[in-house]
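Worked example 2:
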Amino acid sequence: MKQGKATRRYIETRYRETAKRLAQNIPRETVTLYEASRGRVRITLYSGETHILDRAEVQSILEIAPPYFWKLARIPIVLRYEKTASGVARYVVQGDSWQKRLVEIIVRGDYSPEGLGELTVSQFQKLVARYRSIFFVTISP
């Protein structure tokens, strides 16, 4: 029994440490699509490092997002990985309704008033394969 508690404590400690480390590598700032279209593609991470958004990825998003989204929707977008009690993985879109709507446009080609707040694993895989510099992933602490 003692061994089990020690192992569980170790795993929980490692999980919290990993979550803290990942949190340092998420964006401290975001830019609007309009700002990105004008060349502002450098953003600062919480670690203090600079991340550069890929211009081709930004251009691809600009081509599918309606022009009135450009001053409202912000990138990069943070996705939080969660595992449900039943063991199903999901990715929750962090941010406001405009970011959720932008994700829905990218995934489905259209959007709803509330946007897409949660991604399946297959939707997530397609997004990060296509837009590696636009999406950041973290885990719940």
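Strands lie at 31-32, 42-44, 50-52, 74-75, 77-83, 89-93, 118-119, 135-139. The longest strand covers residues 77-83.
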